[in-house]
Amino acid sequence: MTIRAALLLVAIVNTGLIGGLMFGWTVSVIPGLRQVGDRTYVSTMQHVNREIINPGFTIPFIIPPLVVGLAALLQFRAGDARRGWLLASAALVYLVGLLGVTIGGNIPLNNALDAFDLSAESEPRLRDRRFSYEGPWNRWHYVRTVASVSSFMLCASAAIVAASDS
Description:
Elements: H1 3-33, H2 38-51, H3 55-62, H4 64-77, H5 81-114, H6 123-165
Helix pairs in contact: 1-4, 1-6, 2-6, 4-5, 5-6
């Protein structure tokens, strides 16, 4: 296997893992959390936001733009502009639509929620806190889901183009 093929494979796997996580959260966790009370919702999201920061999530989440970008560069250097542009587009979509949105949208919301002292708040303040978090967080998450699945599809398209040209 060439380094170009190996990088393309790693790009597909990594964007697929994150796209699957984002899609799975969208179709299962978000609807499930809509059904719970405010205290349970806030507590659950505080715990999830703390626990997700681990190597099993962070490494596959951070490396796709690097791997996909390098894969694009190698395709361009090999003279394959079609695959190169597909991969460059995948890297850009991931960088802006997933990492950018996470850093600019979801993380500030997570940090504000984490600072909320659940034990010291009344039910009306819990309801207000949930309302100010849940809607905006979910909207940003939907953007991340579309971006991550799109990035995966662009990487997979580069593999299909490669297979059809062989």
